[in-house]
Write a structure and sequence with these properties.
This is Ig-like domain-containing protein. Pfam families: V-set (PF07686). The protein has about 160 residues and is mostly beta strands. It is about 0% helix and about 55% strand. Strands 1-9-8-3-4-5 form a six-stranded mixed sheet, with no helix packed on it. A three-stranded antiparallel sheet has the order 2-7-6, with no helix packed on it. Strands 10-11-14 form a three-stranded antiparallel sheet, with no helix packed on it. A hairpin with a 6-residue loop joins β10 and β11.
């Protein structure tokens, strides 16, 4: 499993020093095994528009670099080498989006008790984000976990007191 942040590049390495001149290299993506890159003899082709200007094939090794990744590029990649024998290798790629900076607000209030001459100070913190998906907000005090909340809906706001 390869994990990276959106906008970064990832190298799907073949682990072969060199491919043979008569080998056909096929890179496929997703559950539907769509052809995204191919080397055969002298030709390189990149037929899938989802990867327009984002793919680079190493002619010597058959390794594939995906540049400027987006979350839509997460998934299963399969390398198929057709030559004297057929070999395949599978990669799983996760691409995480950058989260917006959470908004943290503080509310200080003074509580005084009528039965006591001492007053107590309260502090309330609120952390919130909007328009996010698959996110967890957590509060920690030093290394101690206090609370958390998770959401997978892209359209709601999320708050943790």
């Amino acid at each position: 499993m390869l994990s990276l942040m959106e906008g970064n590049s990832v190298l799907l390495h073949n682990n072969v020093a060199t491919i043979h001149e008569d080998d056909d290299i096929l890179w496929k993506f997703g559950a539907e095994n769509s052809l995204i890159a191919q080397i055969n003899r002298e030709n390189q082709t990149f037929p899938d528009e989802r990867f327009r200007d984002r793919l680079k094939l190493d002619r010597q090794t058959g390794s594939l670099t995906i540049m400027n990744t987006r979350t839509q590029h997460a998934g299963r990649y399969e390398l198929e080498i057709n030559g004297k024998r057929l070999s395949t290798k599978t990669f799983s790629v996760s691409v995480y989006a950058h989260l917006p900076v959470p908004n943290i607000t503080r509310d200080f209030s003074q509580n005084s008790s009528s039965s006591s001459s001492s007053s107590q100070q309260n502090c309330s913190l609120l952390c919130s984000v909007v328009n996010v998906g698959h996110v967890t907000l957590s509060w920690y005090k030093e290394n101690s976990f206090l609370s958390s909340i998770s959401v997978s809906d892209l359209s709601i706001s999320l708050s943790l007191h």
